[in-house]
Amino acid sequence: MRYIAVAFLFFLLPMLGLAQTGSITGKVINADTKNPLAKVSVFLSNATYGTTTAEDGTFMLRGVKPGQYELIITSVGYEDFSQSVLVGAEPVKIEAALKARVLELREVVVTTPADWKRNYQMFLTEFFGTSAYAKQCKISNPEELTLIYKKSKKTLEAYSYDFVNIENKALGYRIKFLLKSFKSDKINNIISWQGRILYEELPGSESQKKKWEIRRQDIYYGSNLHFFRSLVSGTYDKEGFVMRLLYRRPNTERPPEEVIQRKLDKFQMVNRDSMQYWLKLYNLPKYHETLYRQPVNPDQVIRNTDQKGLFAITFPGYLYVVYTKKREMQDFKDVYRPLDMENFETSIITLYKPYALFDSNGAVVSSQTTLYEGTWSKNKIAELLPVDYVPSASYTPPYLK
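Above: the chain's sequence. Below: its structure in token form.
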């Protein structure tokens, strides 16, 4: 089965390896009345830094690792405020005026309790995944979610106006998730979402924290975050990554996926011969593919930008990334693998635009630019790490024997 994931996150992220920390201070007011706003959430998206405003509207984030972030200020009834900030030795000062939220004209949703329950179970499977870690994740306020299932298109959509509160007991995080949009396309097997996330550490014993750290490290090594960080540091090859170029041509003998799925639904349990015919077409490869065996060097695909600590990745065709320190345990139908190539973890990067921007901390910061196939598509919300996560120096990834 084919698995593809697209993560469209709006965040800017911290740089690694700097011992000093910085701070962000500011004040939040009502844009109309100019009065201070208390108990407003202030956080750095996809990181572990967050607070709320005091009665006079002021706030402070201390101990922030230097680097680039997107500061999010949000409160029910107001439009979200966001601003990119560069944290360094000097304190960053922010003045934010929140505007009253304009009522969004969303699709009217009318569902029965049974429909909502079915849609919610479907959402949990697609949002968290089905891994052992996913089974240890729980949403404490599911009523914040609006869920829309379109049977004809086989799509599930979701969004929230307030934080969706998640407890991940597998990795030791409490997650506050502003889910702007979520879509699961079952025809093309593509999951995409946009959101802003605040991570908080769960309390635990020393033995529990040790287990959490081991799990976090296992997720980190070989991940796209690890990959992009290794490109910045120049250690990608020593850390086990190999890049190659992949070229694809559509297989003209295979009908569009939507047509195949519609025919399979039509003939299921009705016409065995027709069903077998369309299953045969379904099993045809989608592409004629050519993988160039010559490894790609970072200087062939990475470009500097005008902004310090911000980089662009660009390449022709598709980027085929192999992590040689872990074997892939799942079969990905549409990920091309030559018969003589070892079964290492493999991911394919597709660019929706000529290039994608990523920062010094190793995460893509330009929205709606990248799509992941293969290994990187497996990790869903249950396996996500905050961008300021750094594995302990004493850990060594599981090298193959």
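The helical segments are 113-128, 206-220, 224-233, 257-267, 272-282, 298-301, 375-378.
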